[in-house]
Specification:
Distance between the termini: 42 Å
Bound molecules: glucose-6-phosphate
Helix content: 40-55%
Number of helices: 21
Radius of gyration: 25 Å
Structural class: alpha/beta
Shape: globular
Largest sheet: 6 strands, mixed
Strand content: 5-15%
Length: 554
């Protein structure tokens, strides 16, 4: 959606990406790099594995197993400079309205700013507001966790259900799973997002209404799925406790920016936790949207999480690009996306608690950089956001890794691992980490036909057992999956996305692409529900599907 030039006050004045000097140089350089094998790069530089590493706030990044040379890095860093990454980072941290299509500041970094910092939006320092909400969340969490907050019948809360979708769901679910070790085990947490009634029905099927608290998480408080689930939850609650409308106040709280709609639903606005239009949904897990996280792990742990985020924010803002983890990660993905035609990036956490991390990153990365139009409204003539996907190791090794090792596609991988486990059990952790290191080694170096033959493999079988290698990967190694470490990891990817979006010259902070389907669904709902045969004016396929559904549901 092109914005009139007069309104693009914040659009950076950068030449089209493909006209940049560094971009052209990278195109020529990529031709030379195509035939260069990681085996050669490592053989030529015995210290490569120590040299091409960077560390920040306890996150260690080994990026040596990438198909790059010092020249590649020099050119990528030049691309970052030429793209105006530095001033753009500063503009974000200053609270400028860099989300130009929605005319909003992009200030998730303010959500984790220490109390004494000042970040001004529209003439107002937003940091005190952030801490006011955090304090209110902490007071509420303490009351629920201690049993002081009771339901309508006087029983303490044992079950907490977050109702939300997209950015109001994926962060909370991921964080709950990631930090389960730190959670209060006598509270049950469930997350309902899908408008498919099964999601709600299964989430509450073993819960007693009188012990259940619903958090309705919705920035707008108008989202179809969330409001449908919230209304169903209210009906379920009132039926369960045989209560009156007034009991809703004890069993429902809201996280939203829309007080009027919250009140209309019947939730006491005293039990509403606010946030602001400068927090994008997919960047909101550390705002009040994280209320379920705070209820699970407690306010102190939540503050540790915020400190982790902040440590990487500071690193991103101040570290030179050649040692800047999010910048390096972002540039490397641009390298493969645009110069090696890589379509995807695999996220492979070797940490069971991070099982929802790839799903979380799918939204963060793909909703942010899945764009084909630049900030100036021009159609791009290069590839932007790759598909992010993944599964925790070692499970993936027994399913899709085959394609990464021996398929025809180049799939850059991010391996994520922790030196210490939260559940030390015999030899498990050494075995787990051995697999991380083995996979990155196998991907990079493979196995030559000579090596396969030398193992006594018959000639006819040799081609099947050869591993080409030269498959790139990053390894991110951290100490232990604490709340702070999770904050660091999420901030790392948030700023990696920012780096990519800046290079690709897209707005990483809007999501117009989700609008059309939503609008069409609103039009179709009455056509499915109408008692009389509706007059359909879709294409022949959609008309036919609607008719078939109507007929068969009878
Ligand atoms: C995220 C998107 C989107 C949003 C959901 C839920 O960046 O904006 O995923 O979070 O559509 O929106 P509400 O919080 O307004 O219900």
């Amino acid at each position: 959606m092109a914005t009139p030039v007069a309104e693009q006050t914040q659009a950076p004045r950068i030449a089209p990406l493909t006209n940049l000097k560094s971009w052209r140089a990278l195109q020529a350089h990529a031709q030379q790099m195509r035939g260069v094998h990681l085996r050669t790069l490592f053989a030529d530089d015995p210290k490569r594995g120590e040299r091409l590493t960077a560390e920040a706030a306890g996150l260690f990044l080994d990026y040596s197993k990438n198909r790059i040379t010092d020249e590649t890095l020099r050119l990528l860093l030049e691309l970052a400079e030429e793209s105006g990454l530095k001033p753009r980072i500063e503009a974000m941290f200053r609270g400028e309205k860099i989300n130009i299509t929605e005319k909003r500041a992009v200030l998730h970094v303010a959500l984790r700013a220490p109390k004494d910092e000042s970040i001004v939006v529209d003439g107002e320092n937003v940091v005190p507001q952030v801490h006011e909400v955090l304090d209110k969340m902490a007071a509420f969490s303490n009351r629920v966790r201690s049993g002081e907050w009771t339901g309508h019948t006087g029983k303490p809360i044992r079950n907490i259900v977050n109702i939300g979708i997209g950015g109001s769901d994926l962060g909370p679910v991921m964080a709950y799973e990631a930090l389960r070790h730190f959670s209060k085990r006598d509270l049950n947490f469930r997350f309902v997002s899908n408008v498919d009634g099964t999601d709600f029905a299964e989430a509450v099927h073993d819960f007693e209404a009188e012990e259940t608290l619903f958090i309705v998480s919705s920035k707008t408080f108008t989202t179809l799925e969330t409001m449908t689930n919230a209304h169903t939850a209210r009906t379920w609650l009132l039926k369960g406790i045989g209560g009156h409308q007034s009991s809703v106040a004890k069993h429902f709280v809201a996280v939203s920016t829309n007080a009027a709609e919250v009140a209309k639903f019947g939730i006491d606005t005293a039990n509403m936790f606010g946030f602001w239009d400068w927090v994008g949904g997919r960047y909101s897990m550390d705002s009040a949207i994280g209320l379920s996280t705070m209820l699970a792990i407690g306010p102190e742990n939540f503050h540790d999480l915020l400190e982790g985020f902040h440590a990487i924010d500071e690193h991103f803002r101040t570290a030179p690009f050649e040692r800047n983890l999010p910048v390096l990660l972002g540039l490397l993905s641009v390298w493969y996306t645009d110069f090696f035609d890589a379509q995807t990036v695999a996220i492979l956490p070797y940490e069971q608690y991070l099982k929802r991390f790839p799903a979380y990153l799918q939204q963060l990365t793909m909703e942010s950089n899945g764009k084909h139009v630049t900030l100036s409204g021009d159609t791009v003539n290069y590839a932007t956001g790759p598909v992010y996907w993944g599964e925790p190791g070692t499970n993936g090794q027994h399913s899709f890794y085959q394609l990464i090792h021996q398929g025809t596609r180049l799939i850059p991988c991010d391996f994520i691992a922790f030196v210490k486990t939260l559940n030390p059990l015999g030899r498990h952790h050494d075995m787990l980490l051995a697999n991380v290191f083995a996979q990155t080694e196998a991907l990079a170096f493979g196995k030559t036909p000579e090596q396969v033959k030398a193992e006594g493999t018959p000639d006819w079988l040799v081609p099947h057992r050869v591993f080409e290698g030269n498959r790139p990967s990053n390894t991110i190694l951290a100490g232990e999956l604490t709340p702070a470490a999770l904050g660091k990891l999420v901030a790392l990817y948030e700023h990696c996305v920012f780096t990519q979006g800046t290079i690709w010259q897209v707005n990483s902070f809007d999501q117009w692409g989700v609008e059309l389907g939503k609008a069409l669904a609103q039009r179709i709902i009455p056509e499915l529900e109408s008692e009389t045969e509706p007059k359909l004016a879709h294409d022949s396929s959609t008309n036919n599907l609607i008719r078939r559904y109507r007929k068969q549901k009878e």
